[in-house]
Write a structure and sequence with these properties.
46% of the residues lie in helices and 15% in strands. The chain is of the alpha/beta class. The chain has one domain: Diaminopimelate Epimerase, Chain A, domain 1 (Roll), CATH 3.10.310.
Length: 147
């Protein structure tokens, strides 16, 4: 059975956190990645629950993004706060999820996450200006749900 250590190495995790920091420099978006072994419900329902639990909706411009991954079940979801969803096209998250899924199907989980994070930052920079100080409102650390 996969563990979080075999799913992603410490170096993989470091690169994911780096990608988050780089993406967040481009816009006021606040990205969080959450891993757990199993998803006992619909992945999007679980992501919504975690979004609230992690207070991802507490950013000044409501620009929190959660990437949820259940690595044993091999399911994931992406959810953005209302400030993002009010500005981006309706298929915004679907396109990002499809690109990530293509990597995941090739067992390139780190690359898929990094690419999804990068795309989120690039896209958000088109809809949000960084005219004022871009304060880091949410920790960039990866959250491990059930170690």
């Amino acid at each position: 059975m996969a563990t979080s250590q075999t799913f992603l190495s410490p170096k993989d995790r470091e690169l994911i956190v780096y990608a988050i920091r780089e993406a967040e420099k481009q816009s006021p978006g606040e990205i969080r990645v959450y891993f757990e072994k199993r998803c006992k419900t619909d992945p999007m329902d679980r992501a919504v629950q975690l979004f609230d639990t992690l207070k991802m909706n507490a950013t000044a411009e409501h620009t929190g993004i959660l990437i949820y991954v259940a690595y044993v079940d091999r399911v994931f979801a992406i959810i953005g706060d209302e400030g993002i969803n009010a500005k981006v096209p309706a298929n915004f998250w679907d396109e990002t999820k499809t690109i990530m899924q293509n990597y995941f199907q090739q067992e390139k989980f780190r690359d898929g996450l990094v690419e999804g994070i990068k795309l989120s930052g690039e896209q958000l920079s088109k809809f949000f200006t960084s005219g004022k100080e871009n304060k880091n409102e949410i920790s960039d650390d990866i959250v491990m749900g059930d170690e």
